[in-house]
Amino acid sequence: MRNFPQLASVVQYNCDISDARHAGDYGLCSFLLKMREFYRWENEVPLTRALPKDELGEWLTTRETHWNGIEADDFAPLALARGELDPFDADAANRELLPQGYVYGAGYGRLQKPVFFLGRLLRLEARAGFTILVSSCEYARELAAPPAMLQGHTIFVREESARRYLWEKVEEWQWRKQDNAMARALANYPFTSDADAALQRMTDNEIETMILHEVGEAMAGELLGDRWPELVVSVARTPSEPIARAVRDLLADCLSTLPALLERANLPALHFYFATFDAPRRQLFPQALQAYEHFLRSGELDRLWQTVRDGKERWLKTARGLLEDASAMETLYSLPDQPVS
Q1: What is the rounded distance in angstroms from the CA atom of residue 159 to the CA atom of residue 136?
Q2: Cβ–Cβ < 8 Å for 28, 341
Q3: Boundaries of every domain in the chain
Q4: Which of 230, 255, 257, 258 is surrounded by the fewest CB atoms within 10 Å?
């Protein structure tokens, strides 16, 4: 692609505008962790290498100054052979980019943060009526860099972002080395003898889980209709947003993710699923944790199967109830008033 450097520059510019506008959405600890990881990506620092503190501090100052100068800018159009494109028109961009071995993603993440990325196409596959685009190295990205994202009938999976996300989880566990679900997940990979190979094996396995979840998101979307995205937008940046997202996540996982993991007896992925079972889902669905603990004691998956079957109806009914009365979220779960982490 003759104009690829220009395209990558424009995509990165749009990513920087998004970050400038939304940097305040994160709590301080989360923000600093994301900035450290972003510095590592931008400067191609290996995951296992310590970051230089002085250079990192200077970079942070320079980056924030850059953001201050572009926060009010409009997103720039993509310059492609067919002409300039709206930066959110990923479908049109990929009609040109995919045959050349690249993939472009655009959409909205948590708190309606615009998400853009440009990467190398690793593989393309079709499954259950969806196009799955898996990318490898990334040439442009923003601060959040979600490893997987559903847009319409296309599922974007970003291997590089997935590797970084998983390595963060590995490092977090290594600081404390607790005997928990994460320890059980990591025990299935040779991190003590070959960390790179272990991380790649784990990434390959978890990418499949991410695809299963996004398929579940699409299935949930078909059941809930167009009113659900409107509901999420209406509660964006309020304590109700994590609740709404958790309800849909639980529905998606009971529809697709967990049935597939259980059917395949993919225990490393099952352990990792419960290792990353966040606070909203834990408090909304303690029955899932209880069923997982039953499996740990007995070695039998029957109770988890039953919990997932019950969960399909429960979370579909709950989500539809929220569509009729969004204020019911307050009775489901009260989140503390705090920045997103």
Answers
A1: 5
A2: no
A3: 4-161, 182-332
A4: 230
